[in-house]
Amino acid sequence: MNSLLRSLALMALIDSINPNAMAVQVYLLSTPKPVVRSIAFILGDFVAAWIAGILLTSGITQVIIRMFNLLGDVIYVLQFILGVVLIVIGYHLSKFANQLTTTKRPRSLKPIHTFQLGATMAFVEAPTALPYLAAIEQITREDLQLPELLGVLAFYNLIFVFPLIVLLGMYLVLRNSAATLLNNIHQSVTKWFPKIMGAIFIVFGFVLIADCIAHIFGHSIV
């Protein structure tokens, strides 16, 4: 279990680098009396990602596993194609940084609406979040009991929203002087996010391709 938690913590840290969520949090913290609505946004993000994880580790995962078993060696052809696609996406990711980090500001600042915004963002992004999907695959292989499964997913998603909690904590400590620092942090994340994720996509793409080649010679590295 300890090795699983360490692996999940690493993937969750990568997954937590989310310029969209951080941009919304910075915006919420710049509004009058932001604490309650910011907490609601964090809770929405956490709860929805947690529920999405539960859904992904249930019947949906089993259906995918059965499909992979039916495909047999054809899966390695698809894996090779996916590896090439990931390399191409990773290489060009920086060029689309502005489109990927567009701030989604809520129409209403009521806590219920910022909660809904956080939940919506988490649900929309969960099926395409590569670290989360990798974490789900690892969790599924462990065949955990329901209480352990819920706890492990909660652990992952607590780390996932941790940067948002840090931003809120910085606001509570610094108050009036927090605005400039929070904006600088957001700008840094916006700048480095596509580069970091691009590198991760490229590395993962090469790993998938290498695994396909290794399979030809009777070995596997994934």
Query: Radius of gyration over alpha carbons?
Result: 19 Å
The portion of residues assigned to helices is over 70%
Structural category:
mainly alpha
Question: In terms of quaternary structure, what is this?
Answer: single chain
Q: Count up the helices.
A: 11
Number of strands: 0
Mean pLDDT: 80
**H/E element order:** HHHHHHHHHHH
Low-confidence stretches at least 5 residues in length (pLDDT < 50)?
none
Main β-sheet, in a few words? none
Percent range for β-strand residues: under 5%
Which outline best applies? globular
- Give the distance, in angstroms, between the N- and C-terminal Cα atoms: 20 Å
Explain what the structure shows:
- The structure is a single chain.
- The protein is mainly α.
- It is 80% helix and 0% strand.
- The protein has eleven helices and no strands.
- The protein has helices at residues 2-15, 19-29, 35-56, 59-71, 74-92, 97-100, 111-125, 130-142, 146-160, 162-174, 178-216.
- Helix 1 (2-15) runs parallel beside helix 9, helix 2 (19-29) runs parallel beside helix 10 (162-174) and helix 3 (35-56) packs across helix 9.
- The two termini are 20 Å apart.
- The relative contact order is 0.21.
- The model has no long low-confidence stretch (mean pLDDT 80).
